Structures are given as structure tokens and as C-alpha cells.
Amino acid sequence: MTVPCKRATRVCIRLVMVVGAFACAGAEAAAPKQTAAFGIALDATPEAVTTLLSAKYPACPLARTVYRVRPGDSGPQTAELAINAGLAANDPASLAVCNEGPAGDGIIDSIEARFTHPQVDARQRLYALLALRIYPDAVNTESRRVRVSFDDVRRDLFRMYGKPIDERKERTVSNAANAAASLGVYRKVKRDDYLVRYLWAEQGRLDDVERDDDECDCSGRYVKAVIEMTRSPSTRPSNTFYALSVKLIVEDAALRRRQAAWNAQWQRKQ
After folding, report:
1. What's the rounded Cα separation, in Å, for the pair 101 and 264?
2. Is the N-terminal amide bond of 61 cis, ω within 30° of 0?
3. pLDDT tens profile 27-71
4. DSSP state of 219
């Protein structure tokens, strides 16, 4: 089922819940209540993720990356499936994006789903998921329909994952502000941009400075959220915090380390 949204904020982040009941934000911090984002959960197979992405993003190309064929392989094995690959890392190759998705007009999703090699896990389980949702810049858009408040995003995340074990907030210059300036559409108005980070894990902590990578020194399975938000006296209502982007990293740390060790083993043999 989907996270309920107020009528006025139908474009709020609609991350699909897959199982279980979800604790309120006041519950004790612990491991995440679920390890899924955008309807994709850890342990999913390449076939299941292909079916889901093809159904939710029919107009967007689905990129498939495969492992190098090695002795004993039955054929090319899926390493990653992606929609708008590289967008979360600001890869210049991702400038031509597909903006047609389930979140609605003006909202862009990027998904990168990584799978184990069959020699690491026979079912080729999903061990890492990077999901990014980019909203229109509230400072540089006149439409109130596409503005999503930070409070709505935060509320949805806490309903889905529970109370985080760590959180940080720091001032930043957002990607939206940089993009507007580079394209010459920058409005000379006051704005305050912030980066907010949350971590749900059995054990672990956020880095003091966001390194913009996908990994965490955490135990077990974890979820990390990185949110860019902005406020400005030029918006109506003024000085409301609006979400600019939400990035979710969902990972099985133990399985990721097993896959990394397997990768290193084959690299040494070459």
C-alpha cells in the first residue's frame, strides 16, 4: 500500500510499503522497519525488479549492466538495473533524463538496483538500492502544485522506517540552485538551502560531512536518507521548507562486503 498523502500534496513522496506495521516517530530508534524504496525491496531478484520497473516506468529506458562472463557462468549475469543511471551522482552522462514516472509531471526519479553474482548468492539477491527523487525548485517555479514540503517528506520517511539512530542538518548550496545559476534562470532572491540526513540501522553513524557515496559503515541492513531542502521569502507561503530532492540508500552491508570480496578476488586473477 502507499503512504497516505493530503489532497493538497498528492505529489508528496509515495514510497511503497511492502510489509508490516510501522511505528510512529516517537518509537525507540532501531533497525529500519522495512528495507525498501519505490516499491523495491532487498532480496528481490533481477526478474522481479525488471517487471516492476517496466510497469512503473514504461516510457523510460531500462539499463542493464552485466558481470563479465567467467568460467562456469551459464551466460551474462545481471549486475545492475537502472532508470536514469548516474543522476544521483551528478554524472554528466545523465543529463538526458527521462522525466516520465509515477510521481507526476516535473518530478524525476533515478533508480540503481545492484545484484549479487550467482557465485556469491545463487538467487542473485538485490543487495543495494539507490533511489533518488528530484522535485522542481520551489524558488524557481510558480506552480504550487509541484511543491512538496519537507515536513511531509520527513513524516512519510518516519512512518516507513521508524525513528532514525542518527540525523544531521547543515547549510549547503543545493544542486537546484547551482543548476538554475548555470542555466541563467537564477532569480536574485534570498534562499536558504540545507542538507538533512537520516540513518536507520542496528548500528552505525553518519559521517560528519556528507561524502555523497552510497556506502555506510553500518552493521546489518540499513537505510540512509539524504534530503536537500530550501526556503525563501519569495515563496507563498513564505519561508516554508520545501523538498528539492530525496535520495535513499538501502543496503545489506554484509552481502555488499561479500560481493566486494568476490569482485576483488577476480580482479587479482586477471
Report:
1. 36
2. no
3. 456 799 999 999 999 999 999 999 999 999 999 999 999 998 877
4. B
Q: How confident is the model at residue 23 (pLDDT cuts 50, 70, 90)?
A: very low
What SS3 class is residue 245?
Answer: strand
Other beta carbons less than 10 A from residue 236's beta carbon? 9
Q: How far is residue 113's CA from residue 81's CA, in Å, rounded to a whole number?
A: 5
Give strand ranges (E) for 135-233. Answer: 166-172, 192-200, 221-231
User: What is this structure's pTM?
Assistant: 0.83
- Written as one letter, the residue type at 89 is A
Phi, psi of 52 (to 5 degrees): -65, -50
* Residue 18 confidence (pLDDT) above 50: no
Distant-in-sequence, close-in-space partners of 218: CB < 8 Å, separation ≥ 6: 199, 201, 202, 203, 204, 251, 253
Instruction: Name residue 84's beta-bridge partners.
Output: none
- Asked whether the CA dihedral 32, 244, 213, 110 is positive or negative, the reply is positive
